[in-house]
Design goal:
The structure holds two protein chains of two kinds.
Chain A lengths: L1 H7 L4 H19 L8 H11 L1 H29 L9 H23 L4 H15 L5 H9 L6 H23 L6 H17 L16 H12 L4 H16 L5 H28 L14 H4 L17 H6 L10 H4 L12 H4 L2 H4 L8 H4 L24 H4 L6 H4 L1 H10 L19 H9 L25 H4 E2 L2 H12 L12 E2 L5 H8 L5 H6 L1 E3 L13 E4 L3 E5 L4 H4 L4 H4 L2 H4 L9 H4 L15 E3 L5 H11 L6 E4 L6 E2 L2 E4 L2 E5 L6 E3 L5 H4 L9 H5 L3 E5 L1 E13 L4 E10 L2 E5 L2 E7 L2 E16 L11 E9 L13 H4 L2 H4 L4 E6 L4 E6 L3 E2 L4 E2 L21 E2 L3 H14 L7 H6 L3 H6 L12
Parallel strand pairs in A: 13-17
Antiparallel strand pairs in A: 1-2, 3-5, 4-5, 6-7, 7-8, 9-10, 10-11, 12-15, 13-14, 16-17, 16-23, 17-18, 19-20, 21-22
Helix pairs in contact in A: 2-4, 2-8, 2-9, 3-4, 4-5, 4-9, 5-8, 5-11, 6-7, 10-12, 11-12, 21-22
Chain B lengths: L1 H38 L2 E5 L6 E3 L3 E6 L2 E6 L11 E3 L2 E3 L6 E3 L4 E3 L11 E4 L4 E5 L1
Antiparallel strand pairs in B: 1-10, 2-3, 3-4, 5-6, 6-7, 7-8, 9-10
The chains are: A alpha+beta, B alpha+beta.
Chain lengths: 906, 132
């Protein structure tokens, strides 16, 4: 204790600041050797990564400078409280007062000399502020800062003008050039410790927040509130005046001045805290619990200790390249990594912009700190794929994407569980509660949302779910796959680090398959496969079957004609459909824009000129198919989205596959499709879907002893909803009517939710509560065939009409239609298991579908359809009568012969 | 004797003032000239008609309804470079000002709209030339 008292004996704040100044000056001279004012960022990043000694000296320079500033200010305040001892001439005191400003300028110019992302903004603010000084502002600003593209003058003033001025006034008022030994020792020790553990900052260029140095952040906050920045000049002058008058003013004035300075200082400290800890991107207010706080605010405090023995060899150092004009430590170790596309290669964007970490740390541990192993997950997409210079316009709209928020799936599930009256309410997978429906979703459904993070490297397989941007954009080539498999087999095999997967627009059907082979099973249907309830072992050698996820058995039925031609999912589904367009949609049919008639049309197509393309479409078009000059593209009828893989030329319309570039000439619809007006309201899929999968008789109940999974928390749990599958079927889909205001459209439908739910098994409050639903869902079967279904397959088919399988007969003797169902009636509603409606019924007023705008045919519709069906019992599809009925059915009926029998509906 | 002192003091004072004035005049003239030399800058960039907003160091190109506007990227508050756009708003990262795509102030502290810069466009070669 006594010894420590001896050490600080005679050590004043002035002595400490003088010692800090001396250390700062000496280290400044030393750091000038590796520092290059013409390439400040490159030279500093090189120093930080490759020259630990220089980095340590830079840290000493930085920390001693901070000490100099802090202790000089304390020293001034200390003197104010000892005014009686202050015997400084007015001229000297004036220069000392000016010295306060010079001190801040010396610090600020040091900040500017980093040459990083903050420098340009700070330079411009300083320039603008000085220009606010009347008459001579412009002259001083230019003389002090020079031009924006050179830091030469800033450097000169930092190392000479300001330093010399500070040295002169220091000597002038203290008559000392050297601090006492104890003060020097204390400051040196403190600086060394700080310099070893905390590397001086260098903005990484990714963090979107722009903040000045810590001592300027309070002033930045002041400037935020000042619409007229010249007021800040007055504040500075007032501040200096208060300092100047204190020693020479009367007691009362001096007291008031000191109190004013104290209040200003306290306010400034509060403003500094608010600016440092509560200001994020674009100087917006941000609370610590808000998303992105860590990245926007805490990233500014990111630092590491000095690594005196870097984890790389001299050879590796000399071979490492540059990233955006600076060194990154990542590519010193990770050299010669292959597999990248040009736009995502380390030469273009480095490693740090995707993987985070600390790009200026020379140690493996330090460089890997806070690293993102698998970038692109939505939790960190804003700081990887979505940073300002990359794809912020896309990541910004990620949550609007139905594949991210699952709004439709959740809303329908809650509707089916009778937890909401409307299946179209917008919601989000992040807002799941603990209700029976939401637990059901957690256990069985929501693993597929894009926001589900990909936590391990590896190629996308049929078992993959989620993964943010990488769900679609990562591809492992043969070498990367082999290396990754080898690493999986032997963790010590690190060859995989040399083979990076590519990040590209090469989105294959495999990327979609994992999620879309479930539920509506679009991916499997598109390829022609129908899921069965067969056991895998029984079909292993049969080529008519395939296994998905090792246990699910699919039987080949018929592939979609587009699949047969080699079209991928993304050939039809554009970027705004699959990545969202910023608007929130209730269901997938609302979000998708493409319809068959956008490519297969009669007459003049809707087109867009290349110059009128939106930027995203133009960029995709040019990257996939070369320059867009003078090209014309087709656009979707719905929302006018450009189809970038089409081309209109000389009255011909062309279509290209996106991944391979295979060209097709687009064909118009068959004549029968547009003949007459009888089928104007039929969607193309109503006729051209060859089959659709369906499932009936499912039962759901909660088993508290079942080992389950929470797909949101991604963890196993005890207790889960269990789904007991009824019967898998496939065949021509039923048809239903989608109403949109005055418009109506006949579309394919499937028995989406014909099921029972034992809600009482989940909630004891609802014991014995069994829900039964007979809800059909709109379907996009993706089993398109060139030749549409024949007339009878609709007009004489009980499945098409919604009655279900059975025998639909027109009795020529009593002129009546009758229906005999294949399935027995379900005791819950006395309708056949697979039917949507009873014969000549429309279930008006009941819950009938998973949409609020989807209905079975009305009784009147059924009568009209079956009237045609009655005709078709005698007349062929291609008969004159049948063909003419397409044009004017009522006229044909009116002029029928006496032999014709039309149904009697009484 | 007094007259001599007065004369000497007067001379030194006059010479000092003259020296200061002369230096200031030379300084002002030199800087003024140098600023003029350095201030004339011409930027030529490939023009992308498909990009509604594109950011450059000194200016922002906005294309809407086939109309091109070139705005200064300097925030009119304190000159910060505007580098991002969100929901058709140009955002200043330093003090939180925002502007619409016409350059008008939406949220302060900036008071004045962004400066509109003169430019030339060669439609054939899609080259945009901006004179600062």
């Amino acid at each position: 204790m006594k010894n420590s008292k001896n050490i600080i004996k005679d050590v004043t704040y002035g002595q400490i600041s003088l010692a800090a100044f001396l250390i700062c000056a000496i280290t400044g001279v030393l750091i000038a050797i590796p520092y290059d004012v013409n390439n400040p960022l490159l030279s500093l990043s090189t120093i930080m990564i490759l020259n630990p000694t220089a980095s340590f000296i830079r840290n000493l320079h930085f920390w001693s400078a901070q000490g100099f500033l802090i202790f000089t200010l304390i020293h001034i305040w200390d003197h104010f409280n000892r005014t009686s001892d202050l015997r400084i001439k007015k001229g000297v005191w004036l220069r000392l007062t000016i010295g306060v400003i010079i001190l801040f300028l010396a610090m600020l110019t040091g900040f500017l000399l980093k040459g990083d992302a903050d420098t340009q903004q700070a330079w411009r603010i300083l320039d603008s502020l000085i220009n606010e000084i009347p008459t001579i502002g412009s002259l001083i600003a230019y003389s002090l800062l020079g031009t924006e593209d050179s830091l030469q003058l800033v450097y000169v003033h930092h190392i000479a003008t300001f330093t010399i001025f500070l040295a002169i006034i220091t000597f002038e008022h203290s008559r000392k050039l050297w601090p006492i030994y104890n003060a020097f020792f204390i400051v040196l020790l403190g600086s060394v410790i700080l310099s070893y553990f905390f590397t001086a900052p260098l903005h990484d260029g990714i963090n979107p927040s722009v903040k000045g140095p810590w001592y300027f952040v309070g002033f930045q906050e002041v400037l935020h509130w000042l619409t007229m920045p010249w007021i800040s000049i007055l504040i500075i002058i007032l501040f200096l005046t208060l300092i100047y008058i204190i020693p020479y003013a009367g007691k009362q004035t001096s007291f008031l001045s000191k109190r004013s300075l104290l209040i200003i200082t306290i306010l400034y400290i509060l403003l500094t805290i608010s600016g440092m800890f509560f200001r994020g991107e674009n100087w917006g207010w941000i609370w610590p619990w808000q998303a992105n706080y860590s990245h926007s605010v805490m990233n500014s405090f990111k630092t590491s200790s000095v690594t005196f023995t870097p984890d790389f060899s001299e050879l590796e150092i000399s071979n490492s390249g540059l990233v955006d004009g600076k060194k990154e430590s990542c590519i010193v170790c990770h050299q010669d990594v292959v597999g990248f596309t040009a736009s995502h290669s380390p030469e273009a964007i480095g490693c740090f912009s995707c993987h985070g970490g600390n790009p200026f740390d020379g140690s493996k541990e330090g460089a890997h700190q806070n690293m993102i192993l698998v970038p692109g997950n939505f939790a960190d997409a804003d700081i990887s794929c979505g940073t300002t210079n990359c794809h912020p316009d896309i990541t910004r709209r990620k949550s609007s994407n139905l594949m991210s928020n699952l709004s439709g799936m959740i809303s329908v599930d809650r509707f089916v569980f009778n937890e909401q009256d409307n299946p179209d309410i917008l919601t989000d997978v992040h807002h799941l509660a603990n209700t029976a429906a939401d637990e059901h979703l957690r256990n069985l459904c929501v693993t597929c949302h894009l926001d589900n993070p990909k936590t391990e490297s590896g190629p996308v397989t049929e078992k993959s779910r989620g993964g943010g941007c990488l769900a679609c954009h990562v591809n492992y080539d043969q070498f990367a796959t082999t290396a990754w498999l080898n690493h999986k087999a032997d963790v010590f095999d690190t060859t995989y680090l040399k083979y990076h997967p590519s990040i590209s627009m090469q989105v294959t059907n495999q990327h979609c398959f994992g999620c879309h082979s479930r539920s509506a099973r679009i991916s499997t249907s598109y390829e022609g496969w129908h899921e069965t309830d067969l056991v895998a072992e029984n079909v292993l050698l049969d080529s008519n079957y395939r296994l998905v996820e090792e246990t699910r058995v699919f039987k080949f039925v018929q592939e979609d004609v587009h699949h047969k031609l080699g079209l991928s999912c993304i050939d039809c589904h554009n970027s705004y459909e699959v990545m969202g367009d910023g608007n929130y949609y209730a269901h997938q049919e609302n979000q998708t824009t493409l319809s068959c008639s956008d490519c297969h049309f009669d007459g003049e197509p809707a087109t867009v000129d290349s110059k009128e393309l939106d930027n995203e479409s133009a960029k995709i078009a040019s990257m996939r198919f070369g320059a867009n000059n003078e090209k014309k593209f087709l656009v979707t009828n719905k929302r006018g989205v450009p189809l970038v893989n089409t081309k209109v030329r000389n009255d011909s319309n062309f279509f290209f596959t996106k991944n391979e570039g295979v060209e097709f000439v687009l064909s118009p619809p068959n004549e029968v499709c547009t003949k007459g007006n009888a089928h104007d309201n039929l969607s193309c899929a109503s006729c051209h879907s060859s089959w659709a999968p369906s499932c009936i008789g499912c039962h759901n109940e909660y088993d508290p002893n079942e080992r389950g999974y929470d797909m949101i928390a991604n963890r196993e749990k005890m207790g889960s909803w269990v789904e007991y599958v009824g019967e898998y079927n496939h065949g021509l889909p039923a048809l239903g009517v989608r109403k949109d205001g005055e418009n109506m459209e006949v579309i394919p439908v499937v028995p989406g939710m014909v099921l029972t739910i034992d809600v009482g098994s989940f909630s004891k409050d609802l014991h014995d509560s069994l829900i039964f639903h007979r809800l059909f869902a709109p379907s996009a079967p993706h089993t398109t065939v060139t030749k549409g279904r024949d007339c009878k397959s609709c007009h004489n088919n009980p499945v098409a009409l919604g009655y279900g399988k059975g025998k639909l007969t027109f009795d020529l003797t009593n002129h009546k239609w009758s229906f005999d169902s294949h399935y027995q009636n379900n005791p819950n509603d006395n309708l056949p298991e697979d039917s949507w409606v009873g014969f000549m019924d429309d279930r008006l007023g009941e819950k009938v579908s998973t949409r609020s705008n989807l209905f079975p045919f009305s009784v009147e519709d059924q009568k009209r359809i079956l009237t045609v069906g009655a005709c078709l019992t005698c007349h062929d599809d291609n008969s004159t009568v049948a063909q003419q009925s397409l044009i004017n059915f009522d006229s044909i009926i009116g002029s029928r012969s006496s032999r014709c029998i039309i149904p009697d509906w009484n | 004797m007094n007259k001599e002192v007065h004369t000497r003091r007067y001379f030194i004072k006059s010479a000092f003032i003259g020296l200061i004035t002369g230096t200031a005049v030379l300084w002002g003239s030199m800087v003024g000239r140098q600023k003029t030399i350095n201030s004339k800058k011409k930027f030529t960039i490939p023009y992308n008609p498909n990009q509604e907003v594109s950011f450059n160091d000194e200016f922002i190109v906005v294309t809407r309804d086939n109309k091109i506007q070139v705005l200064s990227s300097r925030c009119t508050h304190l000159g910060c470079k505007i580098v991002s756009e969100s929901d058709s708003k140009l955002l200043c990262p330093c003090h939180g000002s925002s502007f619409d795509l016409e350059g008008n102030v939406l949220i302060g502290p900036a008071l004045r709209p962004l400066e509109k810069l003169d430019f030339e466009i060669d439609r054939n070669s899609s080259i945009l030339t901006v004179q600062l």
